[in-house]
Amino acid sequence: MEIVAADVIVTSPNRNFVTLKITTDDGLTGLGDATLNGRELAVVSYLRDHVVPLLIGRDAHRIEDTWQFLYRSAYWRRGPVTMAAIAAVDMALWDIKGKAAGMPVYQLLGGASRNGLMAYGHASGKSLPELFDSIRDHQEQGYRSIRVQTGVPGLTAIYGIAAQSTSGERYDHEPAQRGGYPTEEDWDTRAYLRHVPTVFEAVRNEFGPELPLLHDGHHRMTPIQAATLGKSLEPYDLFWLEDCTPAENQEALRLVRQHTTTPLAIGEIFNTVWDFQSLIKEQLIDYVRAASTHFGGITPLRKVMDYAAQYQVKSGFHGPTDVSPVGLAAQMHVGLAIHNFGIQEYMKHGAHTNRVFQQSFTFEDGYLHPGDRPGLGVDLDVDEAGKYPYEVAYLPYNRLADGTVHDW
Ligand code: KDG
Ligand code: MG
Question: Taking burial as the number of CB atoms within 10 A of a residue's CB, which of 33, 176, 281, 320 is the most buried?
Answer without folding.
Answer: 33
